[in-house]
């Protein structure tokens, strides 16, 4: 049982956590769920302690734990690594970007290796297979084949916070309920735990978090709801574009998504927004880039922000940004860094 200061942090498996007093046993525990390279105490002068538990829910290996300030490095992943926060804040540095997982957050990292650090924290960690997640999403949508854009989107890292994502908040709450169920079922038998297929429900909830399309009703219900709210398929298309600005959006994709012909699509944009589809998308990407440059995260560079906003060419981004806002993106980023409370950030990449 967890005692002391760490008992103030909640954890779905809190009453089952076991004390580990050396880093070697902590490493062994985390290695069951993560491709771990190294792990260490952020305050080496303090004695190590870690309350942890490793278990398997269906096909999912899970590590639950409450531990003091920690650093670790995780190798490149074949699938997704999910971190579900219950107390404290965790930070992950991956490909020049810093991701945060607060106590109410869910951080989903994909692909490249990452460095991890935290203070006193309580969390769950578990891996997910990209193939199974995509197959689950396909089944949920009732499709014979999943859209290519889904596979690309699932291969990006994501941070979901209850406070920042009110639409996804109920899904996160349900995800946490599944882990609470797993704890309750451990009191009976692993056979019952596996038989109820909680791992399948966890895959479904993660898929819905990452693919907003899965949250929509059937086409008939969606049209009915749109009518009640004064919305139409064009409004749905605008929502889709805003959610996918990082992707390579073509007119063909927009036709397929909206079921407009190309001529009708261009007419709708000119009538509703006063410009072509391409012009509007470019404007949205540049506005998003401007916001990110004015409020950069740790490790953000001009190149990283440009890529995140859908630009594959840094030079094209720089030219279009200067034409729109009459300032170089690198200059805007430097000024934003200089105005941040924490001094000493690295200079932005030149555009």
Provide structural commentary:
43% of the residues lie in helices and 20% in strands. A seven-stranded antiparallel beta sheet has the order 1-3-4-11-6-9-12. A five-stranded antiparallel beta sheet has the order 2-5-10-7-8, with helices on one face. Strand 7 and strand 8 (97-101) form a beta hairpin. With 351 residues, the protein is of the alpha+beta class. The chain has helices at 23-30, 130-141, 148-154, 169-185, 190-195, 198-210, 219-228, 233-243, 251-258, 262-273, 277-294, 302-308, 314-325, 329-339; strands spanning 18-20, 36-41, 50-57, 60-67, 70-74, 80-87, 90-94, 97-101, 105-110, 114-118, 121-128, 158-161. Mean pLDDT is 83; it is low at 219-229 and 342-351. It contains 14 helices and twelve strands. It has three domains: 4-210, Jelly Rolls; 216-274, no CATH class; 279-339, Homeodomain-like (Arc Repressor Mutant, subunit A, Orthogonal Bundle).
């Amino acid at each position: 049982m967890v005692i002391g200061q760490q008992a103030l942090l909640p954890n779905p498996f809190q009453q089952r956590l076991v004390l580990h007093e050396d880093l070697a046993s902590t490493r062994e525990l985390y290695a069951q769920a993560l491709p771990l390279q190294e792990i260490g105490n952020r305050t080496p002068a303090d004695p190590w302690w870690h309350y942890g538990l490793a278990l398997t829910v269906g096909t999912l290996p899970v590590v639950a734990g409450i531990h003091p300030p920690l650093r670790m490095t995780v190798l490149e992943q074949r699938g997704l690594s999910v971190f579900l926060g219950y107390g404290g804040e965790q930070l992950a540095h991956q490909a020049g970007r810093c991701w945060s997982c607060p106590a109410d957050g869910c951080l989903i990292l994909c692909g490249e290796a990452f460095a991890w650090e935290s203070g006193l924290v309580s969390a769950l960690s578990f891996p997910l297979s990209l193939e199974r997640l995509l197959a689950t999403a396909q089944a949920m949508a009732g499709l014979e084949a999943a859209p290519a854009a889904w596979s690309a989107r699932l291969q990006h890292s994501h941070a979901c916070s209850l406070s920042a994502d009110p639409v996804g908040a109920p899904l996160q709450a349900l995800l946490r309920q599944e882990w609470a169920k797993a704890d309750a079922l451990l009191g009976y038998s692993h056979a019952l735990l596996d038989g109820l297929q909680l791992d399948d429900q966890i895959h479904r909830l993660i898929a819905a978090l990452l693919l907003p399309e899965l949250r929509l009703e059937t086409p008939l219900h969606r049209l009915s709801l749109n009518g009640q709210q004064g919305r139409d398929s064009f409004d749905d298309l605008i929502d889709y574009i805003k959610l996918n600005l990082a992707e390579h959006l073509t007119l063909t994709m927009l036709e397929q998504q909206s079921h407009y012909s190309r001529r009708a699509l261009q007419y709708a944009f000119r009538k509703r927004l006063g410009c072509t589809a391409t012009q509007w998308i470019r404007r949205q990407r540049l506005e998003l880039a401007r916001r990110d440059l004015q409020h950069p995260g740790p490790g953000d560079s001009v190149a990283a922000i440009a890529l995140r906003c859908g630009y594959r060419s840094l030079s094209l981004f720089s030219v279009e940004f200067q034409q729109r806002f009459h300032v170089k993106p690198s200059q805007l980023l430097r000024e934003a860094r200089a105005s941040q409370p924490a001094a000493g950030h690295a200079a932005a990449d030149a555009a």
